[in-house]
C-alpha cells in the first residue's frame, strides 16, 4: 500500500508515494511529538492500541488459496499463530516510538490487540453486512469474492478490546 499525498503536520514537507511502513512511522513520530508537548504527565494516562489484523488469506490457516474468512466458524487454535494480515514491522515501529516516549518520561500503555485478534478468523461479518451497492450475480455465486474479512462483528472482538482497556483503567492506576 502506498500513501499518495500527505504532510503529516509538517507544512514544509509534502510526501508523495510513501510506502506504508514509512507512512506509519511518520504518523507515529507526529503523534509522539504531539504527546510530548501537550500531555500533562502527572494527570494523564495514555493508551496505544495496536493494529487490527484481517483474515483475507485462508491459506494462512491451512485452507485453499481461493478462500477467505467466509464460512469460518471456529477460531484459530494454534498458539502463537501469526497470519499475513499482520505486519510485525508495524508493531516494532510502535514499540520503538513508545520506548522513546518512556525515555522522555511519558509512559504509554500498549494494548496489543493484534495477536489476540489474530485467532478470530471466525469473527468477521463476511457477507452478512450492509452493502452500499448490492453484490452482483457473479459475487453472489462466489461469496469469498466479497466477504468482509477486515471488520469485526458486534458484539464480539471489539468488545473484548474495550474490556481490556476498562480493566487497565480500573486496576492499573
UniProtKB/TrEMBL annotation:
Residues 7-167 form the Trichome birefringence-like C-terminal domain. InterPro entries: TBL (IPR029962), TBL_C (IPR026057). Pfam families: PC-Esterase. One of its GO terms (molecular function) is O-acetyltransferase activity. It comes from the Eukaryota. One of its GO terms (cellular component) is Golgi apparatus. Belongs to the PC-esterase family. TBL subfamily. This is Trichome birefringence-like C-terminal domain-containing protein. It comes from Escallonia herrerae.
Amino acid at each position: 500500500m502506498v500513501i499518495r499525498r500527505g504532510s503529516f503536520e509538517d507544512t514544509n514537507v509534502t510526501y508523495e508515494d510513501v510506502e506504508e511502513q514509512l507512512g506509519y512511522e511518520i504518523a507515529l513520530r507526529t503523534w509522539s511529538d504531539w504527546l510530548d508537548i501537550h500531555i500533562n504527565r502527572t494527570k494523564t494516562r495514555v493508551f496505544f492500541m495496536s493494529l487490527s489484523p484481517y483474515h483475507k488469506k485462508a491459506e494462512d490457516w491451512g485452507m485453499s488459496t481461493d478462500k477467505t474468512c467466509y464460512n469460518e466458524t471456529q477460531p484459530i487454535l494454534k498458539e502463537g499463530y501469526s497470519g499475513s494480515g499482520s505486519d510485525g514491522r508495524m508493531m516494532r515501529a510502535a514499540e520503538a516510538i513508545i520506548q522513546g516516549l518512556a525515555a522522555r518520561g511519558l509512559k504509554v500503555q500498549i494494548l496489543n490487540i493484534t495477536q489476540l485478534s489474530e485467532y478470530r478468523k471466525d469473527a468477521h461479518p463476511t457477507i452478512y453486512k450492509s452493502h452500499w451497492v448490492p453484490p452482483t450475480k457473479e459475487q453472489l455465486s462466489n461469496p469469498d469474492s466479497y466477504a468482509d474479512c477486515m471488520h469485526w462483528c458486534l458484539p464480539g472482538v471489539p468488545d473484548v478490546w474495550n474490556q481490556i482497556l476498562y480493566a487497565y483503567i480500573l486496576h492499573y492506576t
